[in-house]
Design a protein that fits this description.
By secondary structure, this protein is mainly α. The protein has ten helices and two strands. Helix 1 (6-36) crosses helix 3 (52-59). The longest helix is centred in the N-terminal third of the chain and has 31 residues, at 6-36. The chain is elongated.
Length: 188
């Protein structure tokens, strides 16, 4: 910041805003004068390069005011009972952790209904790919059988604290299996 203060910066912005407003007012007055002298809107547009909307707002200041006011309006709010897709998404949760008997080694190729990315092969000896596969299966599983087939309870327990999962999914699993919440808390 050195040699300049916040007041100096505010003064620069204030001067710019004042000159910009004055220049805009002068330009609009001049365009209205040309229009009153017989220039058509399309002629003003062609010569100046301004858009049709800019010319329209210059010739009719009330249009510019109405446009600026409408831009300041807040966006409509969703209904009071609105729930986001993340809150409505039907995540599947295993019935028991002991039923998760998926592979623990080798290269696994997930079926297309779970992973349609084109990179559906996962080398389970690589921790990053293993975690990625677990995230995909947890978020995309549509049946408990998907979970039981592709996840392993011991690996899930080991990976759980480090998995990046949607909060709604993590909450559902931790409510069903408090052991997962305890593991995550102990890891933190």
């Amino acid at each position: 910041m050195g040699q300049f203060s916040e007041d100096d910066l505010r003064a620069v912005v204030a001067r710019y805003e004042a000159t910009r407003t004055a220049a805009l007012t002068e330009r609009d007055e001049q365009l209205r004068a040309f229009h009153a002298a017989g220039w058509r809107s399309v002629d003003l547009q062609q010569v100046t390069g301004y858009s049709r909307e800019t010319i329209r707002q210059a010739l009719r200041p009330e249009v510019r005011r109405a446009t600026n006011i409408s831009r300041r309006k807040t966006l409509p709010r969703p209904p009071a009972d609105y729930r986001s897709y993340a809150d409505r998404r039907p995540y599947v949760v295993a019935e028991t952790l002991t039923a998760l008997n998926g592979p623990t080694e080798g290269v696994v190729a997930l079926p297309h209904h779970l992973d349609w990315s084109g990179h559906a092969e996962y080398d389970l000896s690589r921790l990053g790919r293993l975690a990625s596969m677990y995230k995909v299966v947890l978020t995309e599983a549509s049946t408990v059988d998907d979970l039981n087939t592709w996840l392993n309870a011991d690996l899930l327990l080991r990976l759980w604290p480090a998995l990046w999962l949607p909060p709604q999914l993590r909450r559902r699993w931790e409510e069903a299996f408090p052991k997962l919440a305890a593991i995550r808390m102990n890891a933190a």
